[in-house]
Amino acid sequence: MKTPTASPTVGVLMSGGLDSSILLGSLLREGRCVQPLYIRSSLAWETAEHGALCRFLAAVASPRLADLVVLDLPVDDLYRDHWSVTGHGVPGAGSPDEAVYLPGRNAILVVKAGLWCQLHGIGQLAIGVLGSNPFSDATAAFFERLGSALSLALETPLEIVRPFAHLTKKQVMELGRGLPLELTFSCIAPHGKTHCGRCNKCAERQAAFRLGDLEDPTTYSSRAN
What we know:
The protein is α/β, with parallel strands linked by helices. Helices cover 37% and strands 11% of the residues. It has helices at 18-29, 46-59, 76-79, 83-86, 105-119, 140-154, 169-175, 200-211, and strands at residues 9-14, 33-40, 69-72, 124-126, 159-161. Strand 4 (124-126), helix 6 (140-154) and strand 5 form a beta-alpha-beta unit.
């Protein structure tokens, strides 16, 4: 009998937002054992985001769901006075996708999470990136090469997978039916634990619920006109 080369457990890089939360829920429904990982990077919204993620994970608890692993990788020394660190000048609802791009963000997250998986015998890391993501560090080529580099670094195989790469946002939202999506978190300018309702990500969240023909259960401090 051939010995399997990878653990049946899959690591999932979590943000607490809709896509990664639906990804985790979908993997659990498929019968997979899931290890959620959250990278704390000293960004302005992380306290609210992490709290929401913990509540979501508690709501979907399963014997196949491992405890959340939180890893620290601060980037405030890189981004310094950027809005993502200071919370000032956050891109509003009408801003383009490029306005919320964080340079090197995917590389930073995947390297930290991927190394943790390799060191703990997990051979697969799943991320909730959609194929419609416009940035170069969200492409299949980027993740394939990064996975190869990490596999070479520790001489331990690591496969980075994007289960939603060929799905539309509408299809992803349809997969989220029945999950406690009210506990997910998308805002980059929260008022305490509450979505602001006026930032780029809140607008994206509202559009996602409309696309999925789902009632938006989110509490917003206000809404953009």
